[in-house]
Amino acid sequence: MLSVFVLCSCATGRNGELTWSSPQACIASYTTGGAILGATAGVLIALATGGGAKNTATKAGIGAAAGGAMAFAYAWGHCFAAFTKVKSAEDLPYSTVRKEIDYQPRQGTLTKIKELSVDPVAIAPGDKPSLNASYYVMTPEEKEVEITETIILKIFDPYKKKFVELGKSQEKVVVQPGKRKATSEIPIPPNAEEAKFFIAFRVDMDGKYDQKEVPLTITNDGAILAKAKDDLDRKGARVARVEAEHATPKPVELASAVGSKNLSSENVQQVEITAKVANLRVNPDASSKLVAKANRGEKFALQTTITVGGKKWCQVKLEDGASAWVSASLCKITE
Question: Ranges for the SH3b domain (predicted)?
Fold first, then answer.
């Protein structure tokens, strides 16, 4: 029997549950146990295969690293709700949104996430990226409704060969129908392991919901962090430019109108299929459910990439707005 004792900065709340002084204190209690259990598994494997002392120590070290890395992901999920909160506020009133999206009462209740981003998309341990979302909630009658806003932390588990939900933070609020903006700081613990996560945002209302997700990379790689910061700066500049153009309307000349077609695709990378036929799958795994097939020369918007078991995969956006994964060996990334 293995017993694990962990010193932690915690206290017992009124409901009997533990509360933590910081994300790293909460996570450390789980990752320590994961590393110890991983090391124990490594020792058992080495002994079962007849390894000597050196082999046993090596397997224990590998087991500890792997156990600690995955334990961090699941531990962060356990601690996620305690330190991540979503806040939202009205952005546009019901009457304005009704005209903007041509909403008709016969459509019933409507929930639609318009935009979602985590800024920046790559972050170092100890920093705080921000989640930013905008969404519509519309009802046939302009009256208050209860909605649930949820932030979900996900990761691809190579053992289960699928994306798994690690944890979530929910807020129930009563709001007026219309367009809303939601924000949240996501504190990354200083003891965070390098990995690629996905942050999903979901809005529920009256049995209907909409959900979108975006990648978040935790890394110490200076080049990746610098690129993420540059991309965020360019994004801010584009937003400022658009807001300025809306503030001071100008006559649009034909040349500028034509040129403006490509503004939305600025710096957007594409994935071009290079194999005769490529399988598009639900998860980045060759045994995952098939979504569709794509022929050589077909192009899709690139959403993100991930490496699983030494193999690189690209997440692409399909025509219907859904996402799918294609092996990087079957395609190439272009500007």
Answer: 277-329
